[in-house]
């Protein structure tokens, strides 16, 4: 018999569903009359759809015909899949009254579901709950606490299984390995989740030039694999470098004739290799409060051993000549100009550092590492120590990366008898850990929430704020990320400004009286336009959005929508569009290489630097590939972020395919980002007059650290890759 398979047939679910707040088991039933319920758009938090601040239970319902033709869409159609996107926080989903799935990962109840997990519920194709060719009722029971809620993001469809449900082309376990920047290799794997099948066919790997869609390298090889025996292949090729290419993998199964395809960008390194001669990098200004511990590791590249020295160090400070770590304390307020010098066998470099002793800290955006985007709640002491070690060993500390921050997951459920917060057994000794980190001249951060519980369900600071601040200071903490989670249970629904500010004011006053500087990072996702008052409640930075993920929609959706916050950033108080998603990320114990393409990663770092954003690396520091390292160690790019003027870039042009950002720099020049947000390579025309630039201008490509030339009136940047960027510094000729 000849079977015709309609590959990729799928039913799209409607964008508008029925909705009701509250909770009643009857609402799962197909016969329940929901005609009085309101209509609501899915793919958007219910806060944005007429229910601001709502926390608790609510139900979504929709009716949909499931055509039996879906059963013939693949030789492997054994199951029906219902995709319901991401649901904040937990859900239970019913098809015609029968429960077909739930997400309640963390605590076993839907109150603690994982708001970031894609819900795809699977039923056997012969499950009687499916009413083929008739109307079916899907009912989703949702619980939300704190922040946004509901069916907030993702794709919504019904499909049957096909080869892509069983076969994965794993191109994210390994990363590309570079030899000499032009020789690349990478291992890819074909995996099957179905033990019952042996897949056998061929794998074609192509490297494609996106400008003309031509393959510049291609290879086809036989491949066969089972659930227990994956197939792997390491391919190697040579490129001329410096240009964006796409790698495409197609596996075709010879039995079903079905294919699975995956594509990814090929990384290309633009950052020049650091010279063996000494060079001082990083911020040119730093702040400390009088009488508080000062710690600053002079970031410098160059062949070790190097000798560090500092002229005009204010009284109370001392520099370690071997490590370049400046420590001590300064009792008298004022601005101190220090001349730093670094020498090695090949030469010397000198630069000024301004130490401002006064009320303000965080004079440039914080740069460091945070455990969340990589380890999630699986963070532990070993992982934090390893991150600190890697910061030194990878050389990132030589470019100004300083903070090592523990996010959620370190707190024990019960406080000590005297009310003191106690770390759980993953963190045996916080004070010793801080000492370990300080010993390298790095700084240590920690995390808490103003509610009784943190977002991950750990112990929060509620009613222990002053005591917690003292404990942090006692341990030697330099940075506090303070979330909002579960404070929603303390504050009234739809909290007004008073309630939004209250927990932050409280913690700020506690932090102000401890005997060390603790950078205060607010994390309440932008509620109540926090950028307008974050500085007033003591914030050195404040999150302006929900959580970032490692995909283009999330990163670009956040990064290109910061305009409303831009005027409020400045030295000591920064907008925080969330942490970086480059390198190996995972939000838990198992990691994958970021799903952003290399060009998207150039966009990510360029944009965050233009936005004067805190730069917090969220990847496994101990397995950092050459490309990621190159992204995080370009001193001319990082200097845009750390510029002492502290202005945030603004968007000066926007079309469907282009965004242009401009940031004023302290030396009178401008950093300009030309972003191609379209799916094709593009040329971008930059007109100088909207930038107020008259006369001849010198243009420098910051990623390549190369002068492009001098131009008057305008400049056309050719061939900016899809989702890529050209980051310029423009300086008027004298
Ligand atoms: C919130 C924050 C994240 C992270 C988690 C920890 O979701 O936005 O950055 O701190 O909490 O649970």
Structure explained in plain terms:
- With 734 residues, this protein is mainly beta.
- It folds into 5 domains: 5-161, Sandwich (Jelly Rolls); 165-266, Immunoglobulin-like (Sandwich); 279-357, Immunoglobulin-like; 367-632, TIM Barrel (Alpha-Beta Barrel); 650-732, Sandwich (Immunoglobulin-like), CATH 2.60.40.
- Helices cover 13% and strands 37% of the residues.
- α5 packs parallel to α6 (497-512), α7 runs parallel beside α8 (598-610) and α8 packs across α10.
- It is globular.
- Residues 1-7 have low confidence and may be disordered.
- The site of alpha-D-galactopyranose (GLA) has 10 residues, from loops.
The secondary structure category is mainly beta
Uncertain residue ranges: 1-7
Please write the CATH class name of the largest domain: Alpha Beta
Question: Could you name the CATH topology of the largest domain?
Answer: TIM Barrel
- Choose one word for the global shape: globular
Properties at a glance:
Jelly Rolls; 734 residues; binds alpha-D-galactopyranose; eight-stranded parallel sheet; Immunoglobulin-like; globular; six-stranded antiparallel sheet; mainly beta
Brief account:
With 734 residues, this protein is mainly beta.
Topology:
Blueprint: E1 11-12, E2 16-21, E3 38-41, E4 56-65, E5 79-88, E6 90-95, E7 98-103, E8 118-124, E9 135-144, E10 150-160, H1 163-166, E11 167-170, E12 177-179, E13 183-192, E14 199-209, E15 214-225, E16 231-238, E17 245-253, E18 259-266, E19 279-280, E20 285-288, E21 293-297, E22 300-301, E23 307-311, E24 317-319, E25 325-329, E26 334-344, E27 347-357, E28 367-370, H2 372-375, H3 381-393, E29 403-405, H4 430-439, E30 443-448, H5 465-475, E31 479-482, H6 497-512, E32 519-522, E33 541-543, H7 552-559, E34 574-576, E35 584-585, E36 592-593, H8 598-610, E37 615-617, H9 626-632, H10 635-641, E38 650-654, E39 658-664, E40 670-676, E41 682-687, E42 696-701, E43 706-712, E44 714-720, E45 725-732
Parallel strand pairs: 20-27, 28-29, 28-37, 29-30, 30-31, 31-32, 32-33, 33-34
Antiparallel strand pairs: 1-10, 2-3, 2-4, 4-9, 5-8, 5-10, 6-7, 6-9, 11-13, 12-13, 13-16, 14-15, 14-17, 17-18, 19-22, 21-25, 23-26, 24-25, 26-27, 35-36, 38-39, 39-40, 40-45, 41-44, 42-43, 42-45
Helix pairs in contact: 5-6, 7-8, 8-10
């Amino acid at each position: 018999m000849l079977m015709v398979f309609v590959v990729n047939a799928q039913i799209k679910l409607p964008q508008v569903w029925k909705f009701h707040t509250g909770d009643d088991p009857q609402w799962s039933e197909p016969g329940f009359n929901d005609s009085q319920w309101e209509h609501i758009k899915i793919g958007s938090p219910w806060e944005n759809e007429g229910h601001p601040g709502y926390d608790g239970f609510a139900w979504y319902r929709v009716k949909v015909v499931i055509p039996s033709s879906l059963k013939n869409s693949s030789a492997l159609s054994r199951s029906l899949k219902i995709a319901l996107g991401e649901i904040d926080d937990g859900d239970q989903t019913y098809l015609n009254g029968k429960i077909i799935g739930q997400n309640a990962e963390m605590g076993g109840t839907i109150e603690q579901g994982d708001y970031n997990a894609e819900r795809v519920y699977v039923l056997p194709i012969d499950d009687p709950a499916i009413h083929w060719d008739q109307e079916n009722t899907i009912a989703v029971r949702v619980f939300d606490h704190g922040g946004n809620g509901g069916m907030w993001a993702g794709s919504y469809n019904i499909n049957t299984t096909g080869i892509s449900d069983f076969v994965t082309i794993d191109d994210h376990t390994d990363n590309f390995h570079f030899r000499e920047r032009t020789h690349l290799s990478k291992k890819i794997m074909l995996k099957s989740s179905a033990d019952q099948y042996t897949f056998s066919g061929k794998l074609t790997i192509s490297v494609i030039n996106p400008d003309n869609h031509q393959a510049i390298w291609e290879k086809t090889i036989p491949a066969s694999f089972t659930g227990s025996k994956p197939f792997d292949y390491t391919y190697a090729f040579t490129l001329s470098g410096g240009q964006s290419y796409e790698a495409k993998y197609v596996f075709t199964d010879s039995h079903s004739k079905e294919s699975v395809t995956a594509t990814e960008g090929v990384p290309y390194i633009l950052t020049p290799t650091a010279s063996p001669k000494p060079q001082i990098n990083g911020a040119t200004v730093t702040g400390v409060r009088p009488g508080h511990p000062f710690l600053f590791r002079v970031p410098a590249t160059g062949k070790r051993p190097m000798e560090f020295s500092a002229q005009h160090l204010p009284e109370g400070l001392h520099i370690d000549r071997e490590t370049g770590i400046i420590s001590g304390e300064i009792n008298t307020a004022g601005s101190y100009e220090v001349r730093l010098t670094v020498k090695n066998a090949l030469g010397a470099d000198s630069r000024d550092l301004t130490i401002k002793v006064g009320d303000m800290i965080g004079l440039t955006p914080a740069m460091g590492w945070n455990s969340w985007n990589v380890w999630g709640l699986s963070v532990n002491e070993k992982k934090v120590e390893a991150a600190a070690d890697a910061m030194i060993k990878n050389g990132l500390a030589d470019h100004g990366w300083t903070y090592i921050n523990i996010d959620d997951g370190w707190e024990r459920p019960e406080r000590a008898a005297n009310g003191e917060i106690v770390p759980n057994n993953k963190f045996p000794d916080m004070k010793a850990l801080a000492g370990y980190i300080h010993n390298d001249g790095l700084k240590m951060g920690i995390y808490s929430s103003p509610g009784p519980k943190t977002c991950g369900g750990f112990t929060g600071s509620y009613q222990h704020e002053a005591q917690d601040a003292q404990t942090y200071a006692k341990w030697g903490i330099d940075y506090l990320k303070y979330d909002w989670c579960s404070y929603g249970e303390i504050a009234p629904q739809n909290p007004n400004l008073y309630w939004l500010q209250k927990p932050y004011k409280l913690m700020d006053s506690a932090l102000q009286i401890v005997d060390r500087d603790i950078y205060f990072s607010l994390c309440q996702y932008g509620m109540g336009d926090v950028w307008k008052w974050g500085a007033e409640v003591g914030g050195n930075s404040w999150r302006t959005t929900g959580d970032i993920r490692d995909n283009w929609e999330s990163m670009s959706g956040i990064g290109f929508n910061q305009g409303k916050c831009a005027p409020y950033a400045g030295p000591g108080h920064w907008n925080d569009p969330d942490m970086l998603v480059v390198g190996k990320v995972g939000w838990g114990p198992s990691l994958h290489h970021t799903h952003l393409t290399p060009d998207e990663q150039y966009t990510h770092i360029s944009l965050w630097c233009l936005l004067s954003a805190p730069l917090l690396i969220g990847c496994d520091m101990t397995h950092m590939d050459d490309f990621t390292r190159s992204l995080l160690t370009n001193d001319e790019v990082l200097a845009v972020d750390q510029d002492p003027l502290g202005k945030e870039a603004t968007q000066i042009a926007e079309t469907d395919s282009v965004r242009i950002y401009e940031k004023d720099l302290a030396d009178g020049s401008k950093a300009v980002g030309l972003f191609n947000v379209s799916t094709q390579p593009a040329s971008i025309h930059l007109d100088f007059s909207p930038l107020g630039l008259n006369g001849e201008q010198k243009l420098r490509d910051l990623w390549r650290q190369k002068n492009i030339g001098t131009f008057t009136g305008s400049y056309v940047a050719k061939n900016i890759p899809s989702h890529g960027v050209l980051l310029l510094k423009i300086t008027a000729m004298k």
